[in-house]
Amino acid sequence: MGRQTCQTYSIKRCSGHGRFDRKLWVDSPDYDGRVDVFQYYLKKVKLDPSLTPEKAALDTIGYSPAQIKHIVNESVVIAHQRGAQVSNYEDFRATMETYEWGLKQPLRSMSDDEKRNVAYHEAGHAVAQYLLKPHERVWKVTIIRRGSALGLAATKPTHERYNRSDKEILAEIQVCLAARAVEEEFLGKKLNGVTSDLEQATELAGAYLGIVGMGDELFSWLALGSRQDGLKALRSKINVLLKDEMTKVKKLVLDHADFVHTIAEELLRRGDLTGEEIEEIYTELYGEKQPELPEVTPRAYLDSLAQTEAPKLTDGDDFDEKNSE
Question: Is the pTM of this model over 0.70?
Answer without folding.
Answer: yes
